[in-house]
Queue: 4 jobs
Job 1
Amino acid sequence: MLYGLSKLVPFSAAEFRGPWSGRPLRRPWRASLRKILPLETVPVGLLLLTITAGCAQPHKADNDLNRMTLKRRAMECLTAAIRYQANPVVRVEAVEALESSGCKEGLPWIRAALRDDHPAVRFAACVAVGRCADPVALENVRKCVDDHDASVQVAALFALHHLGQTWQTGRIPTYLLNHDDVTVRRNAALILGLLDEPGAVKVLARAMRDRDAGVRQHALEAMARFGNREARQELAFMTNAGIGSEEVFAIGALAQTGDPVYLETFRYKLATATHLETRLAAARGLGRLGSDEGFETALKALRTRKPLIDDTNDPPAGQILRVRQMAAAALGVIVRAEALPALGELMEDPADPRVQVSAARAILEILEADRERALPFGPAE
């Protein structure tokens, strides 16, 4: 999710300093996160070994039970994370993970997040409600239209649109083209890209003249999603920019289109890119197109504990976080059960709750994968 939270909430390797208090929490945050994953059930290592060896198990019922247990544990992780008050970033990512998983059990938690005290969480919840088209949340979404935060207002209009109340959707372009706050304009570009309204391309094209590079990037991504040829050509050019962040953005944007024409582009970047994050973006793009060619790259990166480069502007902890989250995201769309042990281990590691959330999300995406993917432990329920 965009919103700009990366500048709001710093983390350290040892403890979390609250962004508003200016002082450390009374106890190390990594210890408090153990509550995310209660350990009163079957040891996860044994559970995962049983699941991934599902083909050799004599009773399918046992495999289904293990699968349900792992799913429950991942849901416990996410529902604990969505209540994690020390950092709104964790709550935002938990909302996104619950929506992405497709599990109906997550809807009550997403609805509750509409009333969160941080606007970024409310923004994420409105987007999730809209993508799920959850009618039960309608009343609270209406309240968010009058939120004091303009980005939340935009996300609420998006949710109303997908709940069939489209008469206010025309307000969204105003936020993109006229709002003074650059974060609001960026979020409006993101929302327009998710609307599935081809007419938005004209508005997005005007936003390409915005003075902020971030607004232009998200407008470009949205236009590519709508099939705009010039936008896709520009993104394809950017995949060879030689700048890691630009390549990652461009590959991710092209992957969102779901167009198989970029299969060879992703293969090439997976094989040749010097930047690991570029290779992980390519692995995820391949996964979205049904290829597991990036599986080994993602699985190895999931365990990384060393920074990629020595850069004073890019702290080691931030590099490691990005790599592990991108690796988990790639494994979630590649959908191979062999990734479950490593993801399960990461989900139980309290070193960083954001990584726990990424691992839990990937586990749920694998377990909830389409029946046609024919996982060895049986189809999703």
Job 2
Amino acid sequence: MSIEPDDGRLRSGEPYEIIDNPVVGQQYRLLERGSDADGEFLRLEVRYRADAKHFAEHVHPRQAESNHVLSGEMVVTVAGEERTVGPGERVTLPAGVPHSHRNASGIETRVLAELRPPMAWVPFARALAGLAREGKTDEDGMPNPLALAVLLNAYPDIVYLPAIPIAVQKLLFGLLAPVGRLRGYSTDYPAVRGPGSE
């Protein structure tokens, strides 16, 4: 199944959940859960504010990401190569390939994204946005090392930094996560329902 810009929930503007990260300037409007398609994918609309932050280069070791730009422009860097993607254009980021993306238009950019498989991306994104809302990230949206260890230890294989071997990151997060939990960091952030939720 491929992503299509005329998805019913996208037309109606009724996501079943909205995850808003105020620090990085991105809002995720969840349109279709992985469980809606036998766990095959997660479909969401990503809204990048005009002043949205540029996330550091990262890698999803087991998850492919497809993006269809609906409005505005985004710059996508894949394995060191930069490309500008505009309305109607698509870009696919295979699992295991380092990448980053950012708003390049100076206005809000809207992207229809699909993640395959969905894994635990939703609770991961909820927790990252929750940490941002509570002021527990830096100005670029990155949690401190203990909060990050709790997050990445709880949701392994969602995202890693490409410059450090994944096995080393897993070991480090596994060692730091208990300390982070003792310091009060958590991944328990509730869903914020959208207008079309049940």
Job 3
Amino acid sequence: MKIIQDQLKSNLPEIKSGQTVRVYQKIKEAGKERIQPFEGLVIATKHGRGLDGTFTVRKIAQGVGVERIYPLHSPTIDKIEILKMAKVRRAKLYYMRGRFGKRARMKRKEAVSVPEETKKEPPEVS
């Protein structure tokens, strides 16, 4: 168990289907290392948040659909940014593979934010 705990990342965001994410991946080429971003829609998450958990990101590049499956706790993933959240009603968005253009649009989901007034602690009453 100690070996597994050492490999888990602690700074991962909550990744769900319908989110548009930007994944920064470390790429080694000719002895150099660079970071390559991949931005797209999360169409599936599988196997939970454990060591074997994965998520699938899809984007359209030059008219061709490109999908990448990333392990959640991969050492090659530098960071993951959540850019947008869409309102979805199913866990796997495989139907997006057949859609393009305006038909591929999804309804935007508003981020839940707490007003500043409620964040303050109430004054103590004596």
Job 4
Amino acid sequence: MELIGMGIVGCGGMSFQHMLGLTQAKGVRVSAIAEPKRENREKFIKFTSPGIEHKVARDEAFRKRVLKAREMLTSCVPYSNLDRMLERESLDAVLIVTPHLFHHRQVLDALEAGLHVLVEKPMVCTSRHGEDIVKAARKSGKVVGVAYQRHMLPEFVYMRDNVQSGKLGKVEHISYTLYQDWYQFTKGTWRRSPKYAGGGELMDSGSHILDVALWITGLKPKRVYAQMRYFDARVDVNSALTIEFTGGAIAQIAIVGKTTMGWAEELTVTGASGTLRYQQGRMTRYDDRGKKTTPKVPRRATATPVGNFVDAIRRKAPIAAPPEWGLAVARLTEAAFQSAKKGRPVIL
């Protein structure tokens, strides 16, 4: 098995999570990292932070993964920017984990260098940039994916299979709510800056929610009406979207970024002959007569976005979230921001 030479672009918080995913992938060499902040580069190469050290002290399995990550990073070369890394390193692929507004240019540069690309969500912040990446990805023939991990999680795969096989009948309504203390933990970070983030909670964690609503149902948005609250932030914190789909289905999506309850996720898909409800990992099913059951969700081999990415490069599996999904989310997000600004529904 030939080693896949991987470069990591951006060494903030999420890069640590993806590095842990890479420890479970076989035949990968982390050859280089690109990160403008020296402090971030040093922390990442040493693979240490207060949170990691705390968990290492109480979780033996986690400790082994951290040790493997440190071993994989011992010979990696640090760079202060992507351009220099692309010029000097012989890579096969890159993982892009940078602020949102950097993604577009960095993905295109990596594809132009002949590399496979996995990019964190959101793939881009505008539909035009999304179209650029889809076009470039198709032309390159390289694997390009977005790190939407719910495409591999058993509960969401189960919901998608049931919805798209017609077991719920025609989809009539989707209700999806995300609660997150985003307002509190993003204070003072780039995620609150329009210059780097392109938007707030809807663009950030909300990207996962819009993606799942589209991916599970396969429906095409026709019209969206959105309201947003910024509080004292420069970006959106709370959002409420009503989406009308081609075919008549309606979705109500709430992204609540200012709450004291931490993280909570609730999704209900209502069809003409059945309903599926997901609440914090628990699945409930209602049949056409209203009978309530707890379905057995088929277990799947543990998969991470980077693990799937490596498998796709080796042609062992399709990429779970190709760039077309990133474009679909960008179009819907863009329309939601336009609606909130104009105070009226926007047609996609």
